[in-house]
Specification:
Blueprint (H helix, E strand, L loop, with lengths): L3 E7 L3 E7 L5 E8 L11 E2 L1 H19 L6 E8 L4 E5 L9 E2 L7 H8 L8 H4 L8 H11 L3 H6 L3 E5 H9 L9 E3 H4 L14 H7 L8 E3 L2 E6 L10 E7 H8 L8 E5 L3 E8 L10 E6 L7 E8 L3 H11 L7 H6 L9 E3 L17 E3 L7 H27 L6 E4 L6 H11 L3 E4 L4 H13 L6 H7 L2 E5 L5 H16 L9
Parallel strand pairs: 1-5, 5-12, 9-10, 13-19, 19-20
Antiparallel strand pairs: 1-2, 2-3, 4-7, 6-8, 11-12, 13-14, 14-16, 15-16, 17-18, 20-21
């Protein structure tokens, strides 16, 4: 009896495999971190082969902990770090270069060249995205331009591209021995190449980027059977049936299926997604238009998204670069050792600023320093910066949609931080709500896969699984938090124009 769904969550810092039961409850999990490679300032890479090895390992761990085999799995879903680009040889299965991660900024020269004719919104009407180093398209172009022989091999049809969902799907389904080369609409919408209306690759944009169409995967829905696991794997013949980019997966796992429903994920970065239903809403306030999901042959659902590059990774920076904490969990206790931020603000524009500013010329800054400020104030300023950046994005959402926020559904590792969640509620003036199942990203991928094979009957059944775990209600002192936010806005301006050639 196929009584479970396995979700593979290939994230920015680690890969996990999580087994869910029919109630959407976590049964078991395996997790393994992978190396963060920083060859130069602004460059961020991962080893795709390490990620593939880790995937196989965590699948075995998750199944072993639950005492399950592939016979117990109705389907497998995949969710992934979006925009991270892998290019590999389809005959050998070997990548031509490390995966270039979504945080990487090396492609600014390509962005500038393309933006010289029409500005950063040159392709926005078609693809919903501004030209930015964030998206996968510029990363593919960089590899073709900078890896010896890559362009020639690509034009011969030997090289193929994928975000990490595609890399895993291809390997899981046989690799060089007939692996399925496909992606879903949510990941395709993060390349700069997919037309939002036709859900197909745009040949004119590919030509502008000088990327051969033959490299690109087939675009499929977020919930259908793409293929079956190869016969020599632990998942032998299990259907791979769901793919969602990580932030869309978290939205799906939060049961935010309808227009106006939203979520905010607190991870390496923060990502706010607001479902706009079947309507394509183009932002006038610095957000991007993206796919929310598509189930089989149904009409696609769209979303507005605000992407914040650095939130949880700022806490990692406090730990790894400054050494003021030994473990990420210590940041809350250190921040709580002081009553406020002491006048200090951290604007973590390590890779420029994403939504709603889109300022690649910005760089990180700590402002408002006096001799009074200590490491407790810096810890508090780091947490507060996450809440300030979230308010920046949500104010843009309200301007674009005309809908006031009534509450905010949250997920991700930082939601365990009580001080941050309370400050977020105070700053927004609305309740912040966390679900019982915190693993909403993996759950969303599991839901998509389960729907495709009839493990779940429909969205109403998934809505019934959602349960509230914790709620933070705002305190009435609006004047105090609004004053803090005004100073934050001033701090942000101090980061602009730092990189002269951006």
């Amino acid at each position: 009896m196929s009584s479970h769904i396995l979700a593979i969550d290939q994230g920015t810092t680690s890969t996990r495999a999580i087994v869910f039961d029919h109630a959407g409850t976590v049964v078991s999990a395996g997790q393994r971190e992978h190396e963060q490679i920083f060859p130069k300032a602004g460059w961020v890479e991962h080893d795709p082969m390490e990620i593939w090895r880790n995937v196989r390992e965590v699948i075995g761990v998750a199944l072993g902990k639950a005492n399950l085999t592939r016979h117990d799995l109705a389907a497998v879903g995949i969710t992934n770090q979006r925009e991270t680009a892998v290019v590999w040889d389809k005959h050998t299965g070997k990548p031509v270069y490390n995966a270039i991660v979504w945080q990487d900024t090396r492609t600014q020269d390509i962005v500038d060249r393309l933006a010289a004719d029409g500005g950063i919104h040159r392709f926005s009407d078609a693809v919903g995205l501004p030209l930015a180093t964030y998206f996968a398209g510029t990363k593919i172009a960089w590899m073709l331009d900078n890896i010896d022989g890559a362009r020639e091999r690509a034009e011969r049809g030997d090289l193929i591209f994928g975000t990490t969902d595609t890399w895993l799907l291809w390997n899981l389904t046989g690799g060089k021995h007939g692996g399925v080369h496909a992606t879903d609409v949510t990941n395709a919408s993060r390349t700069l190449f997919m037309d939002l209306e036709t859900l197909d690759w745009r040949d004119d944009i590919l030509e502008a980027f000088r990327v051969p169409r033959s490299m690109l995967p087939r675009i499929m829905s977020s919930s259908e059977v793409y293929g079956h696991a190869e016969t020599h794997s632990l998942l032998r013949e299990a259907p791979i049936a769901g793919i969602l980019g990580d932030q869309q997966a978290a939205t799906f796992g939060q049961a935010a299926f309808d227009a106006g429903e939203s979520k905010n994920t607190y991870g390496t970065g923060n990502f706010v997604i607001v479902n706009t239903g079947e309507e394509i809403v183009r932002s006038g306030n610095g957000l991007i238009t993206t796919l929310a999901y598509r189930l089989g042959d149904e009409a696609p659902r769209y979303a507005l998204e605000g992407s914040i590059a650095v939130t949880g990774s700022l806490v990692q920076w406090l730990r790894d670069n400054l050494g003021i904490i030994r473990d990420a969990k210590e940041v809350e206790r250190l921040a709580a050792s002081v009553d406020d931020n002491g006048g200090a603000y951290i604007v973590p524009a390590f890779s420029g600023l994403f939504a709603p500013y889109w300022r690649p010329d910005a760089r990180g800054a700590i402002v408002g320093l006096t001799r009074f400020v200590n490491k407790g104030h810096l810890a508090r300023a780091a947490l507060e910066s996450t809440a300030y950046q979230t308010r920046d994005v949500l104010e843009a959402v309200e301007h674009d949609t005309g809908r006031p926020l009534t509450d905010l559904r949250v997920d991700g590792g930082m939601t365990a931080n009580e001080l941050l969640m309370q400050f977020q509620a105070d700053l927004l003036g609305v309740p912040v709500v966390r679900p019982t199942v915190a693993e909403t990203t993996a759950l969303g991928a599991a839901y998509a896969a389960g729907l495709a094979v009839g493990f779940w009957n429909g969205l109403d059944e998934l809505r019934a699984n959602w349960q509230e775990d914790a709620r933070w209600t705002p305190t009435p002192d609006r004047d105090g938090v609004d004053a803090l936010y005004r100073t934050w806005k001033k701090a942000v301006t101090k980061t602009f124009d730092w990189v002269d050639d951006a």
